[in-house]
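Deviation from plan, reported transparently: 2-phosphoglycolic acid complex.
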Amino acid sequence: MKKLIIANWKMNPSTLREARRMFLALKAGVKSNKSEVVVCPPFVYLAAATEVFKSGKIRLGAQDCFWAENGPYTGEVSASMLKSIGVKYVILGHSEKRAMGENSETVGKKIKAVLKSNLTPVVCVGETAEQKQKGDAFAALEEQAETIFGGLSGQQIKNIVMAYEPVWAISTAANSRSCPPDEALTAILFLRKLLAKTAGPKAGQTLPVLYGGSVDESNADDYLRNEAVSGLLAGGVSLNVKKFLKISQSKV
Ligand code: PGA
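Because the crystal trials were delayed, the predicted structure below was used instead.
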């Protein structure tokens, strides 16, 4: 199976000019079909990205969306709007959004809207440092996953991508440290069990589950090596085009 390598640019870069330069460099660098590469820039750069990526192998993703299709929701962007400009993937439930008030209920509503527009939600779940310290990491994952899955049919679940995102292993987290690859794998296998329980054993085995904590070009392969890890949701390192391209060309 091809690995899915997603770049989450978060709120970067600062100008459209810089974003365009990065789109062009990525397009020039992603030539082979080794992995599926998805780039998720801020909303305001998506239209420019569509232009650059309309030919080539890179797919476009957004970092969030709202659950309604349109209406009086100041500042929000809907899944159907994203679809209309060529977006294919939407990251939902990222811990940085959860820290700003997002919860698993709203994530569930957004997943439905994204699926309704025939886009692929990339659903992030993960435990905080505090939950981990208390020995509650798996309980936290289970609670988030079950709240999210609770509102979805088995068929809907079969169309999502999950990302395990240990909140304590994200570069923006206070005292961030890296999550050893074997720990990431254990959590991913646990998520696969939860998927199997809700959507059937085949879904548990075959649905894409990504690693979403910090990686860099020197350790990405350590996470990708096990076939249970379907790919990466890369943050900070994806702003360095050279390093991100190196990760996307992983041979594992
Ligand atoms: P980071 O972010 O790579 O900058 O640590 C990862 C993430 O937020 O998924």
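The longest strand covers residues 3-8. We consider this an acceptable substitute for the interim report.
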